[in-house]
Structures are given as C-alpha cells and as structure tokens.
Q: What sequence folds into this?
C-alpha cells in the first residue's frame, strides 16, 4: 500500500511548468512527503522533500497544502530530459520507503 | 566521485543457480537497501541493513540472502529458491538518523535463461 495517490500519466510541453499532484489525505503529523523520479532503466533519483512548508531546490519546488492532505511537485521549465516516472512517497522514517506506481510524465517538444 | 555502484548491469542465470549481485558505496553511509522492481511496478524492499554485521528482512525476502561484512558493501544473493527472479534490482544507501533521503545505484537487470 503506497498510501499516496497519483495520476498514472501526464503530458507537458517543453519549456512549460510541469505540475504533478499527489494525494496523501491520511498523512500523519510526523510524516514527510518525498519525491523521486526514475528515468527508464535507471535507479530512482531523489528530487525534494518537505513536512509542512513549501520547499524549493535547484531541481523543483514542492507545494504542500495547509491541511497537508495533498502536494504538488513543480518542475518550472520542463525539458525532454525530465521525461520519467515520478513517485510521491509519505514516510516518517526514510528507512521505510514505499513506492507506488507513480506518474509517468511525458515532456514533448 | 561519490556514489553507489551496482554490477553487473545485466546478468543471466540458469535455472537452479544462485547468483550474487554486487553493491558498493563510497558515500560513508551506514544504511543500505535492496529493492526489486517488476515491469510497470514500484519498488519493493527485499532486505536492508542499518549497520555492519546486521540486516533485516523487507517485504519480499524469501528466496534472497544478504551479508554486510563491510560498511561499503552489501551483496545480494538470489538463490534457487526464488521462483521468479527475473526483475530489475536496485541498491540504495543513506546515513542513519533523521530524514536523510536514500540514494540509488543504476540497477542490475537479472534474466533467467
């Protein structure tokens, strides 16, 4: 049980922002939200994580709703190399990551 | 350059044979993990180790074995008892404590001949 819900697939035009939603309506107060992505035939790559506040790094931004029941990963200017499966994971302990089937993002020219 | 190295990238096994997948990290991480990924699916945890000479079963440990004799190495053996070993195997590591993200190798794809 991945405990998060993500759309199975999304498309995005190159250069536009990609907004990937994740529902985690039963999240506990001490659980973080982590995002990873996996490019075909490679290992997952860590992107970003957060607890309550919005977070930004060189790869992406993470917007968490005030009630923490959902979040959105934003890739501000998507490129073809951002085509991948994106996983949203909720956990209080990074020894226990449960991967669902994620969202397959296709960036097109 | 720090990272996690998995070898080989592709591995073929005859039925009834044991095979060992290598995972080495030079990140000085205490914890290491093995996952299995089947086509179109997420990752499932096989075994993990938080410290040298100690390891715990994950969700799908049957038919697999591991050892952790050195901090930087966490080999996985797929035994003949694993009835459906064809899969993509991923190794990860992270520092102990806090919410430190796991970092992954590039995987080994195992196929049955």
A:
């Amino acid at each position: 049980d991945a405990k998060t819900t993500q759309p199975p697939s999304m498309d995005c035009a190159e250069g536009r922002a990609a907004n990937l939603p994740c529902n985690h309506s039963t999240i506990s107060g001490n659980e973080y939200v982590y995002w990873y992505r996996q490019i075909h035939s490679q290992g997952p790559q860590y992107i970003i994580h957060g607890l309550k506040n919005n977070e930004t790094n060189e790869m992406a931004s993470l917007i968490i709703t005030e009630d923490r029941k959902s979040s959105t990963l934003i890739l501000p200017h998507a490129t073809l190399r951002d085509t991948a499966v994106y996983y949203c994971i909720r956990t209080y302990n990074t020894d226990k990551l449960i991967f669902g089937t994620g969202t397959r993002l296709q960036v097109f020219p | 350059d720090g990272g996690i190295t998995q070898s080989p990238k592709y591995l073929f096994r005859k039925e009834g044979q044991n095979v060992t997948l290598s995972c080495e990290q030079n990140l000085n991480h205490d914890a290491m993990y093995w996952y299995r990924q089947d086509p179109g699916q997420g990752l499932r945890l096989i075994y993990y180790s938080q410290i040298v000479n100690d390891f715990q079963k994950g969700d799908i440990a049957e038919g697999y074995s591991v050892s952790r004799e050195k901090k930087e190495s966490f080999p996985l053996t797929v035994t003949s008892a694993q009835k459906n070993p064809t899969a993509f195997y991923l190794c990860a590591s992270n520092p102990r404590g806090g919410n430190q993200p796991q970092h992954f190798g590039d995987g080994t794809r195992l196929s049955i001949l």
Remarks:
- Chain A has a mean pLDDT of 93.
- The interface with chain B takes residues 2, 32, 34, 41-46, 49, 87, 93-102 of chain A (CB under 8 Å).
- The radius of gyration of chain A is 13 Å.
- Residues 9 and 97 of chain A are 21 Å apart (CA to CA).
